[in-house]
Amino acid sequence: MQYVSTRGAAPVLGFEDVLLAGLARDGGLYVPQSWPQFSADEIRALRGLPYSEIAVRVMRPFLGGSIAEDEFRAIVEDAYAGFDHGAVTPLVQLDQRTWVLELFHGPTLAFKDVALQLLGRLFDHVLAKRGQRVTIVGATSGDTGSAAIEACRDRENIDIFILHPKGRTSEVQRRQMTSVLSSNVHNVALHGTFDDCQDIVKALFNDTGFRDRMGLSAVNSINWARIMAQIVYYFTAAVALGAPDRKIAFTVPTGNFGNVYAAYGARAMGLPIEKLVVGSNSNDILARFFASGTMSAAPVVPTLSPSMDIQISSNFERLLFDLLGRDGSAVTDALNRFRTEGKFAVTDAQLADALAIFSGHRVDEDATMATVAATWEESGYLLDPHTAVGVAAAKADPLDPSIPMVVLATAHPAKFPDAVEKATGRRPPLPPRLSDLYEREERLSELPNDVAAVQDFVVARARAAQEAA
Ligand SMILES: Cc1ncc(COP(=O)(O)O)c(C=O)c1O
Ligand SMILES: N[C@@H](CCOP(=O)(O)O)C(=O)O
Fold it and tell me: The Threonine synthase N-terminal domain covers which part of the protein (predicted)?
C-alpha cells in the first residue's frame, strides 16, 4: 500500500513514513493510492467478532506489510483494553430508526481516543524500531489535545506540543490537557481560534528546515493513521446492524471533516453506506458547501459545541482531491484561491458527485439545546451538545426512514456539563477516575497568534525536556 499527497508534488510513501510524516512535504494530505476492497463475504465474516479483531482485519491492508500481523494484533488489543466498555464503541438505540454509536468510552471521553490510543502505540513501535525521536505538534479545539496527550505522555521518544484556542474550550477539556504534568507534554493557550492554531501547525510543517531539525510529527487528522483507525467503527456499527445485507446511513457531527471522511473511506472499501449526513453547528461552512457548491470562509463563532468551532475543515481537502479527479494541481489551485479570495467553487457535476454521498445540515444553538432536552425527555438518554448537533441533523435529513441511521456520539456529556444541565436540569458526573479534575494543578503557557513565537517556544521546550531526560 502506497500513499499519495492531495497536492500531487510530495514523495509517494509507505505506511510507516506516512505515520511519521503527518502533513505531506508539499502541504497536502496523504491518501491511499487506491482503496482496499472488502467483498460482501469478507464484510459478513466480521459479524460477531470482537472490536480488536475487526480492527485488525479492516486496517491490515493499509499497513502494506510494514508491521507483522501478530505484532499489530498485540498493539491493537492493548490500545482498546483500557476502554470502559467491552464493545469499545457500543451502539444504543434511540428510536425505531436511530442509533447512537458511543465513541466516548476511552480515557478522555471523546471519539479521539479510538484513534489516538492506537496512534501513540504505533509511534512507539515505529520509533523504537528506527531508533528515532519525534516532536509532535498538534492543534485542538478541545478533544484531540487531551486524547493525544493521554496517548503520548511519558513516552520516551516523543515530545508533544498542543495548541488550544485560549478561553474557547470547556473547562473540563482544558483541565484534561493542562493537568498532565509529564515533562514531555507542553500545552499552549494561543490568542486565537482553532483555525489559527491549525494554521500555525501547518506553517511549522511547511517550514521544511524546522520540520526536519525538530523531527515533526502530527496527531491531528491530517495524519493518515488517524483516519485509518476511525474507519474501523463504521464497519463494527454497519455489520452489527445487518451489513452487507442491509444499507445503512451515518450522521456525523463535523468540524475538521476527519471523522466523516473516515466514513467515506469505509464506503469506498465496500460498506453499503447509503448516505453520510454532515451535522454542522453555526460554523456552517460545510453545510453551505453542500447547499451551493461554494466553499466560502466566514468568521468562527463560539458555540455550545466548541470542538466543532472550525471554519477551515482540513480533511475536506481529501474529498476535494477525489471530486477534482485526483488532480493535485487542481486541488492546489482551489486551496490557493480559498486562501487569497476566501472562496472557491466546484462545478455542478462535481457537486452532484458529492451529493450522491453527502448531505449537510446546520443546527443552531436553540436547536442543539432543544435536541438535548427532547432526547432526555423522550428516551432518558443524555446527549452532549456535539452529538445533539448530529441527532438534529439526522432528523432534518429526508432519507428513506427504512434505512437505519447511526449518529456518532463523539463526546461524553460530562465534558460539557453546563450546557447539558441547562437543557435537562441534570448535571452529568465525571467518571471516578476524573472526579478530582477540578482540584488538579494546571500547567500551560500563553502565546500570541504568531508562528515565530510558537517556533521559538517549541525549540526551547524540546531542548529543555531532552536535557532533563
Ligand atoms: C466532540 C467532537 N465532535 C465532533 C468533532 C468534529 O469531528 P471532525 O473534526 O472529525 O469533523 C470534534 C472535533 O474534531 C469533537 O471533538
Ligand atoms: N475537534 C478537534 C479539532 C481537531 O481535529 P482533528 O480531528 O483534526 O484532530 C479537537 O477536538 O481538537
Answer: 2-80
pLDDT tens string 399-422: 999 999 999 999 999 999 999 999
Q: CB neighbours of 199 closer than 8 A, spacing ≥ 6?
A: 312
Does any domain span residue 45? no
Q: Is the CB of 319 under 6 A from ligand 1?
A: no
Q: What is the DSSP letter of 411?
A: B
468: confidence class by pLDDT, cuts 50, 70, 90: confident
Q: Using alpha carbons, select from 356, 350, 363, 377 the residue that is nearest to residue 407.
A: 363
Report the atom number in ligand 1 closest to the C-alpha of 261: 10
pTM of the model: 0.97
| 299 inside domain | yes
Q: How far apart are the first and last CA of the chain?
A: 37
Q: Report the alpha-carbon distance of residue 451 to residue 388 in Å, rounded.
A: 35
Pick from 434, 73, 101: nearest CA to 253: 101
Contact 219, 122 (CB under 8 A): no
**One of 112, 166, 275, 395 is an active-site residue; which one?**
112
- Res 96 pLDDT > 80: yes
Has residue 39 been placed in a domain? no
Domain that holds residue 307: 91-107+224-424
| pLDDT of amino acid 379 | 95
Q: Measuring CA to CA, which residue among 8, 50, 6, 58 is closest to residue 31?
A: 6
Is residue 343 annotated as part of the catalytic site, yes or no?
no
- Reference 458, options 189, 204, 97, 157; nearest CA is 204
Best residue among 100, 113, 259 to mutate for probing ligand 1's pocket (most ligand atoms within 8 Å of CB) is 259
Closest to 286 measured CA to CA, from 269, 308, 304? 308
Residue 386 near ligand 1, beta carbon < 6 Å = yes
CATH number at residue 244: 3.40.50.1100
User: Does residue 357 form part of some domain?
Assistant: yes
Give me ligand 1 centre to Cα 464, in Å.
33
Cα pseudo-dihedral 287, 196, 228, 186, rounded to 10? -150
- Total structural domains within the chain: 1
Which three three-digit cell numbers place residue 322?
477525489
ipTM of the complex: 0.99
User: Mean per-residue pLDDT for 86-110?
Assistant: 97
Mean residue pLDDT of the chain comes to: 96
Give the residue whose CA is nearest to atom 15 of ligand 1: 307
Ligand with smallest separation from the Cα of 384: 1
- Rounded distance from Cα 262 to ligand 1 centre (Å): 12
